[in-house]
Amino acid sequence: MPKRRSEPCPCGLPAPYRDCCGRLHRGEARAETAELLMRSRYSAFVMRDADYLLRSWHPATRPPGIEFEPGLRWERLEIVRTADGAAGDTRGTVEFRAHYVQDGRRDHLHEKSRFVLHDDAWVYVNGRVEP
């Protein structure tokens, strides 16, 4: 987790957190694509920002709350592929691998996430974990 907001953004893009996903987390900007929303949600998991995760989740599938795994440290996001989810689209899919360490063991979450445009903003609908 970045200790200072000037440190690189956890999402992997070449910008400081404060100028990248931090702007979305603070509500100063919206993700322009499904991929950018995916990146900002990953960064929210790194930063343990439950409020942003809930705000960026579709109301029909949003859980009542978020609990973070104790001892889990997210290390890196790898975007595998995207389908749709750009300007002019109303749906998008982002396949990613989120690498983490838990209890000294390295692993990753491989997921295909679905996003839709809802009230003029990209939101997460759901995801399917891949082997």
From TrEMBL:
Domain called YchJ-like middle NTF2-like: residue spans: 33-127
InterPro entries named among the record's database cross-references: NTF2-like_dom_sf, SEC_C_motif, YchJ-like, YchJ-like_M
Coiled-coil intervals, chain numbering: none
Database matches in SUPFAM superfamilies: NTF2-like
Family indicated by similarity: Belongs to the UPF0225 family.
HAMAP family: UPF0225
Name the record gives this protein: UPF0225 protein ACFPCY_41295
Organism, as annotated: Actinomadura gamaensis
